[in-house]
Specification:
The chain has about 220 residues and is mostly helical. It has one domain. It contains 10 helices and no strands. The longest helix is centred in the last third of the chain and has 31 residues.
Length: about 220
Amino acid sequence: MSAALALFSRELKLAWAGGGGPAGPAAFNLAALALAPLAIGPDGDTLAAAGPGVIAFAALLATLQPAERLFGEDAADGTLELYALSGAGLATAVLMKTLAFTLAVFWPIAPIAFIAALAYGLEAGPALILSLALLLAAPGLALIAAFAGALAAGLKRAGLLIALIAAPLQVPLLVFAAGAGRAAAEGTGLEGANLMMAAAGSLAALALAPLGAAAALRARLE
């Protein structure tokens, strides 16, 4: 087994073992979705119109909630130094760690989005499109959160700093994900374009975020 695959396997097990896997982000996601109608109001048309945006924003909050522990513990116990000295390299370590974390922790985003869209009054077709869009956007959201987590690694109360760094970078992905659901609900025919843009955003984050996170972690080690 290559060093990258071994690292991926290790991080996948740690993501499930530490913090209960997807339980924390999923609960945070559900809480945000349950509380939002209190501010929006009970009108069905209003909830259906606001649903894609609210559901996408709840997914963003779910990805930020566990981001602090992505590299915080590694910075404290010396694991970062071992990553830097390993044959895989920091950028590969960041990528494998983030992909394992995404696979273990963020998989409930799509089914929760589908159920929430139905609860907010969307039809099954638009709800499915919205959940697919968030599934495509989830890797990008997680990679951007990992980049912010690398910048704040080792700092006290890094959660707020991570949110301030990551949220503005994640907004375009949310716009396209919510836009796909809204386009499907309104029948504009633009859901395909929004889905492709959400996937393109994740691919761009896949190419850039590990390099940026590795540079941030390397600067911290120096």
